[in-house]
Amino acid sequence: MCPLTTKKFRQLQELGNSSGLEDRMVLLLVTFDPEFDVPGILKKYANMYNAKTDNWHFLTGTVVRITEVCQEYGIVHEDQESGQIRHSMITYLIDTEGYIKKFYVGQSWTPEELKKQIIANQKPNKSKGRK
Question: Which of 32, 33, 46, 62 could form a disulfide with 77 if both were Cys (CB 3.0 to 4.6 A apart)?
Fold first, then answer.
């Protein structure tokens, strides 16, 4: 799990929950290292960040499925000799119908900005975005 994104998601969850959005937003983080990040490890990681896992999920799967998801969402990752994983950073805002409403490359977003986008996307909008 990426510590930078996890920290921002923690801040976003705090902002969202304190604004009454806890029932209207779901946060997902997907591991690039399913052989290490088994459910027990992910639970410890979630606890380390005080994640409320009713609306924040730490996901794993098979190497094949994670590779498919990464390809589908344009995420690139590679193992380094140091044991670290080098990866692109993309955060997606996806509506309840599965449409991508907005995406952020790198760490170009703030938790406050994303919270505002979540609120804005609660309102009816004719623009479907991309699925």
Answer: 32
CATH of the domain at 27: 3.40.30.10
- Tens-level pLDDT at each residue, the chain (131 residues): 778 889 999 999 999 989 988 888 999 998 888 888 899 999 999 999 999 988 999 999 998 998 898 888 887 766 667 666 666 688 889 888 889 899 898 888 899 999 999 988 876 555 555 55
pTM greater than 0.85 (yes/no): no
Return the number of other C-beta atoms located less than 10 Å from residue 52's C-beta. Answer: 14
Residue of 74, 81, 83 lying closest to 106 (CA atoms): 74
